[in-house]
Amino acid sequence: MPRPEQMTDKSTRKIIHIDMDAFYASVEQRDFPEYRGKPLIVGGSPEGRGVVAAASYEVRKFGVHSAMPAARAIRLCPHAVFVKPRFEVYRKVSSQIRDIFFRFTDLVEPLSLDEAYLDVTENHIGLPSATLIARKIRHLIKEETRLTASAGVAHNKFLAKIASDLDKPDGLAVILPEEAEDFLANLEIGAFHGVGEATESKMHALGIFMGSDLKEWSELELIEKFGKVGRHYYRIVRGIDHRRVKPHRIRKSIGKERTFSEDVDDLAWIRNFLSDLSQKVAESMKDKQAAGKTVTLKVRYADFETLTRSTSFNHYINDAEDITRTAIQLLKDTETGSRKVRLLGITLSNLNLSEGGHFRQLEIPFE
After folding, report:
1. Contact, 258 vs 119, CB < 8 A?
2. Binding positions for Mg(2+) (predicted)?
3. Pick the catalytic residue: 5, 28, 109, 115?
4. Annotated binding site
5. What pLDDT does 6 receive?
């Protein structure tokens, strides 16, 4: 297994691939305790109609996987439990997870609801280790969603994707730049991302079973056998991938939050904390020359119940005093004080990112 990452070369990119573990099925098992430990299939039907959208790890042991016809899944695991997908729920959880990503970097490239690439070469928390950032992200995902994610860390997207599969579920693996070629040489050809069953069979027929076998072929020979994609195979077995992480959306919110080491119910202390947190949010807003119209307060109680309270204005704000005043007003619509809290957060959304940071501060009417 690759060793922990110690990247120090500033010219080396630091890429993380996050892949949620059996995402749809895990959400169902989280929300419905009766499904936990059961061979669960999301999608399809017990009558054999449709296709498997997701399979829990309990049913994967029988050879069931996503995109498999339900009829075949039943033959492999007759006692499997089928549930209908709840895509609105999955999208909501996915958005929650992506918000975690944006706390660390704006360079987030979602591939689907359950996976994404992150470029953390430069990041919001100034941490030089991509491995430590990946650990923090996985910890926050587990704490805030009660779901697990696997992560791969490498200097390019291809290797990060492979690494995220090495220690599933709930794992973290790192491939260092100097280890990449040796690692790929010892990898079975079917484990290369992008090599499907048909291509794997064709490679086997050509005597290509491991990365080391593929590496013996010249670029011209691979193009002759596989067409233009042969150039891709020539590069990936050498760990060459210059693709950049391409964000698919503009950042929609800026926020800060903190989980306390001990649950808190002292309202005076909480108000002071919100003032400090508002200052941090205001600093981030001004650093990015941004302002927002919507302030959201997030409260997580000691029993993990989580709620949000929001208010919107017809003008933009980014001043700490305005944010504090709004957050404390929103606090009144919670049970904070009578119930202990373990987490508080403040977010500004509905952003304007094009005004150069020059916003007119207006009075905020609460009555």
Report:
1. no
2. 19, 114
3. 115
4. 19, 114
5. 40
